[in-house]
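for the writeup, i need someone to sanity check this before i put it in the appendix. the sequnce is what the collaborator sent (i think, or maybe the updated version? ugh). structure was predicted straight from it, no edits. if anything looks off just tell me and ill rerun, i have time this weekend
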Amino acid sequence: MLKIGEFSRLSQVTIKTLHHYDELGLLKPAHIDPLTNYRFYTVEQLPRIHRIIALKEMGLSLEQIGIMLEKELSTEEMRGMLRMQQAQIQQQVNEAQRQLAMVEFRLRMIEAEINFPELDVVMKRVEPLRALSFFPGPHPNLPDWKEAVERMARVAGALNKAVAEGVIQHTGINIDIFYGETILPIGSPELSKRQHEILVGVTEAQKEVTVEGIGPMKIKEEPLVEKAATLMIANSGPFEIYEKFVLLRRWTVAHGYKPAPFVRQVAHRGPIHTLNFKEFILEAQIPVGEKG
């Protein structure tokens, strides 16, 4: 038998709350000493108090909890209810993360408009490229960023294996292309609908292949780009990288160019070398039309 104080510590429920539950009939002491009126509980009553707490955290009133306890829900039924609540809370957290990311993005963009940062933009010609092309999935976004990073790891592993086995005659060039007329903030629902293409530079002898873990990869001839605005990006996290894309597009417009409806991300050091974003050495490229 446990004194009420001991049971309170074990159950993480205050003595005052235990008294209240007793009054409502939710959890009666196992024994009350007739002389001292001391209340005693047993270890076997812990599952019941945990059920009460779980149901209360699900938003049920104490009256509703009493009715639920009378039904004597099985452990499996309780687990199912809690799993459902867990999924609902996770959805709320994801939505809150998405909204927070969008607010932070907008704040930084407002700050950039007031104090536009100095960008070391280089205008240059980009040579044609023969590559294997595939679409790994939509543009990385919240709340699925972790899933996108895991996908990046799988793709990098599959490519490295194919190169090592001679299936891909790699020239060392890797490019991600993120399509879209406008650059949306991370967290925007529309961002997940954007296409994301990966190009792997290959030799003239390379044929179309099917790579384990990726699927079919088709030959694509990327044309010569007469002029592109380019920006080197290093020591940056995923959000900072993405914001550099936004700033580079903003720079092209501010300087009178017509930017292409996509951004090319050339990985001089990227996922095929390391999965640590901070170690990436990237080059953002936006092909542009001549000034009007």
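The chain is about 40% helix and 25% strand. The domain at 122-289 is CATH 3.20.80.10 (Multidrug-efflux Transporter 1 Regulator Bmrr; Chain A).
thx in advance!!
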